[in-house]
């Protein structure tokens, strides 16, 4: 995610990174070149202009489709941020409560906290995992402080975040079996682990459920047809200015659609995705302070 000052206006007119310009520039240029060819054909070959009323009506409907697309994508973006915010809070709660309930067993408390740190990083890399790639999930810097055999076991599992959650539960259960905590306190600690798993599942739901295919295809077809037929309706009023007008409209429409594409799955590493690395680092720093010193 790009950190910026929302009160600054002038600088944003020249920003390239994160502005969607790189993603849409070739589409926009293709439309501009096409519009220039249409105007030249109209001027020097034969009249191809027609009444722009149809485009006005279609443009209104297309605007509604784009608004719905952007709103749906932003809702997914914001829900993802809320889930990760809840994950931060739940990680703190689990570490805080374990620091109190497991104070008589510093080794077990350290295991719970370290695996809790690993859970956030495992979830981040799991959400960024490419389809068919089973080697991209990692546990982050905290892996060096965990037992190597357990790390290898977790990374070899089919679902790494779930395996990490299992390690947390096993550590808490061992505390129960040793008599460090009661059955009721075990259930209380395990409830925090369940919450972490639920938040991770919510992120998976967003990640694995794109917007309906039919909606995206129809929107893009309509957007392409609108932009490529737009010059025919503008020639009568703008002449060669049709090229500039087409550029502005195509830039706005393609840009809005591309914004929706970029934020509908906010767990990647695009310029406008959530700052998951920063969130994971926050969890790591906060929880490390709760690990008892040797």
User: Main beta sheet, described?
Assistant: none
Quickly count the helices.
9
Task: Give the distance, in angstroms, between the N- and C-terminal Cα atoms.
Answer: 37 Å
Compute the number of structural domains. 2
Shape: elongated
State the share of residues found in helices, binned by percent.
over 70%
Low-confidence stretches: none
As a whole number of angstroms, the C-alpha radius of gyration is 26 Å
Secondary-structure element series:
HHHHHHHHH
Any descriptors?
294 residues; mainly alpha; 2 domains; 71% helix
What would you say this structure looks like, in words?
The two termini are 37 Å apart. Helices cover 71% and strands 0% of the residues. The longest helix has 49 residues, at 53-101. The protein has helices at 21-44, 53-101, 106-127, 148-155, 160-178, 183-208, 213-238, 241-263, 276-288. It folds into two domains: 22-75 and 210-263, no CATH class; 86-209 and 276-288, no CATH class.
Question: In short, what is this structure?
Answer:
With 294 residues, the protein is an all-alpha fold. Helices cover 71% and strands 0% of the residues.
Give the SSE layout.
Elements: H1 21-44, H2 53-101, H3 106-127, H4 148-155, H5 160-178, H6 183-208, H7 213-238, H8 241-263, H9 276-288
Helix pairs in contact: 1-7, 1-8, 2-3, 2-6, 2-7, 2-8, 2-9, 3-5, 3-9, 5-6, 7-8
